[in-house]
Structure formats: structure tokens, C-alpha cells
């Protein structure tokens, strides 16, 4: 897929300073596993030391041939999972860079066992995702799509909004309050929402600094919330964290927004809560299996869907590509990486 808003940015970094190691006679081999169809951003950053191969893989099998030659990988999201099978094919890989925040599509533990450093790009599109979450909340609550559809069909259907609640004074619960959760909290406060979060890993006192409240358990969060927006990462602990029991604890007429990862929400439980009327609606940028294969969600009148695009802006996407290529450059040259996610990568950082 080609980035529709892509192109070469004006502010690409200068060529490497002359005290860097001399480029090798035999260039490194960087494989971009999926998604990209042009390396116009990556080549100016890596071209003096590496050849870039766009594998265009849509399944792990597609990577079987190219992987043994890789000195580094840039991984997007189209390959469903970079598992042990793929990692075992890497013979001299100096590092894997996930071009994005969530690295749940890479078996990081297996990479660790093999001593392969893994890094991500955690800082390129938090504001876009927060904007997207708020947009979805507003669209669901203010019934944007039914209104729009009615007009498209020739109507001017005022009753479509009857029953819409006032936003100010309601409570938004955030599951996870890291970069994106915090950015969503700040936006929600500007709308007059009371914000509460559940996040077992953020430091005490964080809530005061942000001007929000903290719930001590997921149950407490759901019980206090009219609306819930999901912003944690996907791991074993957060898989199906949003389940039937917790949805039932939400105030009636609630709305669930998920811009994080589909499997954090039990999709069956969500559909039941929508169909029973307990939930007034949902906004989903991510679903359990992508692309969406469930017609009940696709055609649901109170669900707003987008195809995993919350991160996207022209500027954010270019920033992510540039930061990914710069990280690969550091790994290839044996320099400390900027954003290590496993111990093998952290070991390259000075103490
Ligand atoms: N839809 C999209 O386009 C995008 C989605 N994402 C997703 O959003 C997630 C969050 O991104 P950031 O805020 O940048 O990450 P972050 O690492 O800054 O924040 C994640 C927060 O979730 C918390 N957390 C982890 N497990 C939890 C649990 N079981 N319960 C409650 N909180 C928990 C962590 O303590 C952390 O504070 C990413 O991991 C990624 O999956 C990220 C970028 C774009
Ligand atoms: O950066 C992230 O984590 C994202 O979700 C961005 O989208 P992707 O995962 O690349 O489909």
C-alpha cells in the first residue's frame, strides 16, 4: 500500500557526520517486511550503508526466502505475527524495528532468547490517536452517522437526535493512561468530561498532575464510567480485559471506544452489550480480527468503524518512517538504540 500523503519531507537529517564508521564495502541488508511500496524516506537515511529490500509480505510464509539475508528488519503490521519460525531464519540480524507503537505482532521474548534487539517508535502519533478517540466518542454520542445517512436519503430527520445526552459532567474512563491515554484525558477535560483512569503502572501522583482521578481496579473504573476508551497495550494481562462482566458494570447507555488493539475487547461480549441496549454505541478503530470479518459489527446501527487508521497523519507517518530508519541505522552501526523494548536492545545502551 502506498502512503497517500507521503513524499519526501523537507527536513530529512543531514548525512552522517564523518567520524561515524566507514561504510562497509559489503552493504548491510535491511528488509522492510510489509506495507511499504517505496523507500523514499528510508533510502536517504540508510542508503550509504545498506541496501533496502521491500519484501511486501502479507503472510509469514512470504518472508521465508528473504529473512536469512537480513542484517535488520523494519516491521509494519501487515504480517500477522513475526513468530519463532521467522525469527529462526534470521542468521545475522542486528535488530528489529517495529515501525509503530504496539509490538504485539513480534514475538519479543523469542527475539530476546536469540539475542536479537527489538525497538519500536513510541512517539509519532499519540495526538492523532487521541483526536480519533474523541472524534469517535462524539460521533457515537451525537449520532453523526444516522443524521448524515438520513440527509443523504433525502430526509431532514430531527428526531434522530432525540435522547442524545449532554456530554459535560459525564465520566470518561480510560483503560491505560500512557502517552495516548493522557492526550485523550486532556482533550476530554476540555469537553467538560470528568476523567478517571485505571493503569497499574503509572506512578502515584500522576493523576494530580493531569487533573484526573484514578481507579484502583478495572471494576471500579467501569462502575464509575459512562464512557470507556481503551488505551493500554495488548499483552496477556490485557487480553479481553474488556469483558462481559466489566461492560455490565458500566452505567446504562454507555459507549465503548477502542483505538488500542482489538483483542483487548471481547468482541462477542461487546456485541451482546450493544444488542441488549445496555451500551448505546461503540467506536472501533481496531477489532479482534483485521480486516473486520464480522457483519454484526459492520452493519450495526450504533457502531462507528474505522480501519486501524487512528495513528495516521501525513506528518506523523513520515516521522515514524524517519525514526524507524534512524533506529535501524544506529543498530547497524552498533550505536545505542533510542527505544529498546527488550533486554537485548537495552544492553546496547550505555549504563
Ligand atoms: N489505532 C492506532 O492507530 C494506534 C494504536 N496504538 C495502540 O495504543 C497503545 C497505547 O499506546 P501509547 O499510549 O503510546 O502507549 P504507552 O506505553 O505510552 O501507554 C500504555 C499504557 O497502558 C498501561 N497498561 C498496560 N497494561 C495495562 C492494563 N492491563 N490495564 C491498564 N493499563 C495498562 C501502561 O501502564 C501504559 O501506561 C499501543 O500499545 C498500541 O497498541 C498506538 C498507536 C496507534
Ligand atoms: O503504532 C501502532 O501501534 C499502530 O497501531 C499503528 O498502526 P499499525 O499497528 O502500524 O497498523
Automatic annotation (TrEMBL):
Q: Which UniProt keywords apply?
A: NAD, Oxidoreductase
The coding gene here is: serA_4
Any idea where the D-isomer specific 2-hydroxyacid dehydrogenase catalytic domain is?
39-342
Pfam entry (one): 2-Hacid_dh
Molecular function GO labels = DNA-binding transcription factor binding; NAD binding; phosphoglycerate dehydrogenase activity; transcription coregulator binding; transcription corepressor activity
Where are the annotated segments for Disordered? 1-24
Give the record's GO biological process terms. regulation of transcription by RNA polymerase II
Listed PROSITE patterns: D_2_HYDROXYACID_DH_3
Q: What is this protein called?
A: D-3-phosphoglycerate dehydrogenase
Enzyme class of the recorded protein, top EC level: oxidoreductase
Q: Which family does it belong to?
A: Belongs to the D-isomer specific 2-hydroxyacid dehydrogenase family.
What are the boundaries of the signal sequence?
A: none
Q: Which Gene3D superfamilies does the record cross-reference, listed alphabetically?
A: NAD(P)-binding Rossmann-like Domain
Might you give the EC number(s) for this enzyme? 1.1.1.95
Q: Which residues does the UniProt record annotate as the domain D-isomer specific 2-hydroxyacid dehydrogenase NAD-binding?
A: 134-310
